[in-house]
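Exercise: predict the structure of this protein bound to iron/sulfur cluster.
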Amino acid sequence: MEVNILVGGAAGQGMDTVMNLLGKALVREGYGLIYNKDYMSRVRGGHNFSRLRIGPGTPWSNVETTDILVALNEETFNLHRSCLSPSGRVIFDPEHFELPEDEDRGVPVELRALAKEAGGAIMANTVAVGALLALIGLNIKGVKKLLDETFAGKEGVAEQNVKALTAGFKAAESYCSACFNLPPKAENKKRLFIDGNQVLGMAALASGCRFLSAYPMTPSTGIMNYLAAKSANYQVAVEQAEDEIAAINMALGASFAGVRALTCTSGGGFSLMVEGLSLAGMTETPLVIIVAMRPGPATGLPTRTEQGDLGFVIHAGHGEFPRAVLSATSHEDAFYRLNKAFELADHYQTPVLFLSDQNFADTHRAVDPFDFSRVSYNRHIAGDEEIEKPYNRYRLTGSGISPRIIPGSLEGEIVLVDSDEHDEKGNIIEDAKTRRLMVEKRMRKLNLLTEEMDEPDLYGDPHPELLLIGWGSTYGVLRETVDALTTLGRKTAMLQFTDIWPLPQKRLRNLLPQVGQVFCVENNSTGQLAALIYSETGLKVDGNILKYDGRPFLPHEIVKEVDEYVQG
Amino acid sequence: MFKAKDYMSGETAWCPGCGNFQIREALAEALSELELPPHLVLICSGIGQAAKMPHYIRANGFNGLHGRALPPAVGARIANKKLKVIVESGDGDSYGEGGNHFIHNVRRNPDIAHFIHNNQVYGLTKGQASPTSDQGMKTGVQVSGVTVPALNPLAIALVLGAGFVARCFSGEKEHLKETMKEAINFPGYALVDILQPCVSFNKINTHGWYKKRVYFPEIKDSGDWSAAIDISRQWGDKIPLGIFYKKPRPTFESSLAILDGKPLVSRPFNPVEIAAVQDEYL
Ligand SMILES: Cc1ncc(C[n+]2csc(CCOP(=O)(O)OP(=O)(O)O)c2C)c(N)n1
Ligand code: SF4
Ligand SMILES: [Mg+2]
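Solution:
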């Protein structure tokens, strides 16, 4: 009953436009959906595609099967034909290419010609949206309204687009009108149609972040774009730094001066930030760093996905200092989770790393509006009466947390932070005793952070025979996998880590010994979470299910690998 | 009212006879004469002998990483425009390890005074060549002498559009102090390259060597860029001191409309008040 749509073409052909229009219109109608992008690191040419899956319910993952293929070029048809369901349809422009003789699922729509008639070839995508609407039996009202909103104030543009839309609808209708039944609507209430980077950008705003410095790097750049667009109205300063070293050091300066600060990057940029990360640990300056992973090493596959930097992020930085590492699992959770990152950074005065990846960053999903009253804003700034005078930035305390004041806020008191080992005042020292005390003070905060970590999310059978462990953005695909395996009669559950470091261990220690078969599922080639679990707990999983071709997992791939393992 | 000695704190770890002492005194006097209370001054530095300054001057301090003194200074300025931000660091720190930040902050033009203790050598790491070392200088690493020409920070800054470019000498303390005051008051990025003898590791550019060469050229029009370029290129038998160029242009802060009004750090925040930001995704 679900409907799967794939739109493909060359970079620059505007697959996003199609999916954004259609997706948003469907979500407004109440349909549950997910849409993700597979694109190349180039601006023109090549092969890009997007997949959109419509309910029932709100899907957690895309699948390979395609019901409607919109082939903006012949290559798309050739590459994806094998995934087209027997009753599927292909929308194509006969002006560009013809389908082979043995292909009877074609819906020829003169995308370019109709667009030109409506006012310009550029609207070929709008024609395609019209055709798609006809196939899924949805009237054009919703998309028309969106077009009016999008082009408000641009004389005639909306009208032309509506003309293109209608033309596409009519052309496709004569071939197959409503030949796909939409599933029941997922929700009656209003929902958001939003991607991962937008969720994180919004979460930063909601957390009172007032400063972002970063250097563009896919797939993190969307966060920068989001905050830059909001800068004027929401009082967040956004600065494109000259490099990632500047980015993290600027953010540290802003945080030191008292505002919530953020930087974001991907693995390569994070490599440049590592000395700054260590500085955050040493100076005890709060900082949130979003690392949106892509496949490495080096430049790797810039626009694709991987979970290859878990070990790197946990261990990055010279010397020993406390940190927390959290990850983005679902859109719903990530909003509140990034808020938690800001809260932890301020509370424990230390860097907090937040792991995302291209799969999360670029996936749109229908989600309930976020509850801003659930967002916390506790700065943990000490008042005049809470500090001993003269003020010492690094006062030794039982918790390891020293009262923090904002420089300039209290007359007569100054704040000195230092990258060298220092005494309570912040002055350089070299004596052994102070060094030992300061190391212990900083590391006491790690014990406290351990208490703050949420146990991994458990989903599925409460007494599973088969357990899948994952972290980060594989949450959705693992849920779908658990459901699929359960339908096949397997007692399956999943354990998904959102907070990863310090590793929460209770659930692992309880559950693992009771379950017959445990697999760790990761988008990397070495099984980094499995290795971490082993090094922290001594617990071993029975096998790793790994994918490292730069593409996100699809549910059937995991089911297949589980089957192979189970059958030996 | 704070006297110069009120700004002096901490026990210095510099070699006796080092030019850094006069720079420290000049800075303390400048801050005192400008009547800047310590809690509203922030000194950012990197790592090196010069970069120890935040430990010896009573003010807020961010003693960060080698080469990275400028970025935190910029971040702090954005967060709290009420802070007077001064960057104190060495020639290696500012022009070598931190060269990229130097270049881009001249362009950015934040309201920061940048005081570079230019001893033409890496002091803290015991005497290797710095970007400003003269050609031919022999060190434990440059065993056959420095082969590449020295970097000219003043000319670079001018070419990049700096609004305030000056050279001082630690041995001319009064001039240094007055120049520091002008740099601190200057709206925008102000570069003061301070010739500073390193008694331990620079046996060429000694106090006497500088003393013999420095002079104060008459600067008729400090807004004359071409004249400034000419002066900035003088080096050798005669080394000019003074404010070669002074002409404000719009600061980085003034280009950020959101900084109008209260400093960012003083603005209240309540998450529920911005809940409507998500409506665009409905
Ligand atoms: C990333 C990094 N690289 C190298 C060093 C070692 N180091 C410390 S200070 C310094 C050079 C200092 O020279 P300069 O900035 O001219 O300061 P000076 O000591 O001469 O005042 C070096 C290379 C370091 N601390 N960090
Ligand atoms: S090594 Fe040179 S610069 Fe450093 S304190 Fe000694 S004399 Fe001064
Ligand atoms: Mg030096």
